[in-house]
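Standup notes
- HV: blocked on the assembly model, inputs below
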Amino acid sequence: MRFYDELTSLKEQIGFDERFVPLRKYDNIVLSGMGGSAIAGMLFSDLFSSVPVTVVNGYDVPDFINENSLFIAISHSGNTEETLSALENATSRGAQIFIITTGGKMASMQGEKIIVPKGLQPRSSIGYLLMPLLRTFGLVDEDIQANTVEAIDRVLGMTDEIRPLAESIVENEKIPVVYGIPPSQTVAYRWKTQFNENSKIMAHSSTLPEMNHNEIAALPYSFLKDRFEFLVAGIPVGKYLSRVRISEKIAGVKFHLMPEISGEPVPSMFASIMYGDMLSYFVAEARKVDPREVSAIESLKAELAKTD
Amino acid sequence: MRFYDELTSLKEQIGFDERFVPLRKYDNIVLSGMGGSAIAGMLFSDLFSSVPVTVVNGYDVPDFINENSLFIAISHSGNTEETLSALENATSRGAQIFIITTGGKMASMQGEKIIVPKGLQPRSSIGYLLMPLLRTFGLVDEDIQANTVEAIDRVLGMTDEIRPLAESIVENEKIPVVYGIPPSQTVAYRWKTQFNENSKIMAHSSTLPEMNHNEIAALPYSFLKDRFEFLVAGIPVGKYLSRVRISEKIAGVKFHLMPEISGEPVPSMFASIMYGDMLSYFVAEARKVDPREVSAIESLKAELAKTD
């Protein structure tokens, strides 16, 4: 499969209809994952807060985890070193265990499992990793699913807008700076990591209104000011749109805004993910680098294995 | 007071001995703040997880907040728009309310209060904002306090190391990229915001091991690769030191490491904060910009007030 087709398969992934059935009451949810799997947990936590949701991306788990916790390990490969360590810790504390994976070691570990389709890069499987969370906790119904597919379709039709932006980033060798907007601030971080992995360029993300309390002080005066491309991931409305406009004025730079695609949180979130995925892909294409290849991450894992 | 003296007053702030007395049991803690106040909450959440701790930096509060929640609003001025909104929401949900502030509107709002000394910039008051949290939840005793003061003293004696690093950043017009190390990943974000506000330069932060899953893929190939200064905030040991060394090798860049100052979490955290504060100050000095002045943030607040 072409890597572009992997990314745009997001639209089909919205139909992935698997969910967990919690066996007993829980007081809190802990999601553990690294990289793209961590992002699935973070995106979920942007939208759900009926109980405290903690996302951990490392070896350790919070002290509070016990039999009243719902622990969800997310690992595309099922072999992520840090997540395996966190999963073992959570199991020993008696937490209710859920696992989202394609297989690997996790497929044979204790806990209820959702097995997601293999064959895509972990970062291309964001829909498969995220939809079980949205379905389990009631954040998607048939209408929202239909609107999400429609929103993604609209973005897929925007190559004439997205490709020139990508080409301009490459031509001017710019570093993307991406700002996230409530309720889905995490999408900005997703764009950043897609620039890293697909385009092989550094990128930075922050959120609004938080950047108004620190980063804005640097924008008018920074080194390399004209080498950053300022992007807003998500669709700002109301007071957030005012903040975007005022921030641009104070900083003396223009932010690139997406067109208004949907006012609903879930469709808007997935549309923004798709937009960033396409942008990072077209940057790779314009740079003539292979968007699929992430040999640096693979070399690092091999080197780490030697130190174990 | 010179701004440098403001920053180095961190050492004296460790002696700030105020704490809350929770009135009843609680199931979770929510900390609300923006900018430097949010960082105090994030630093605390790196060290404490006996119950779920959620840090929010925006207008809204999580759905789960109720009478079993302990809500701590942190605002240096006591007038932060977003935090006031979150505080009102939490109060209406019946949460137990604690407030850390110098005064402003929050001084007359419902809830138990810790009033911190006025006169410093919010970001120079990080010790005043953080120590009440560490004391209330039992993370500091007399020994740890003494070791923290000693660790800060050691960093204060390192100007001959820190100043040349700052001068080299300015001479080569570099953008700092700061990596945080468990257990205090947030210190990297503190360094980033201090570069923004004190030095008026863009900066980026991430954490280990998370950056090994995305950013590492960009480092060998990125635009402007030689215009980033890679810094590690905190003192990596064991498997984290291995990750630092392997990351450097894969990326083909050198990371600047701090000398080993303390193996204890709290002294190490404050020593790392002091190191970053000094570095950002010396960058400002070498650039001949006023480290205290943050007129962009003030202009933005004035513009926002007009839209209310």
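- HV (later): unblocked. The radius of gyration of chain B is 19 Å. Chain B touches chain A through 72 residues (CB under 8 Å).
- Next: hand off to the docking folks.
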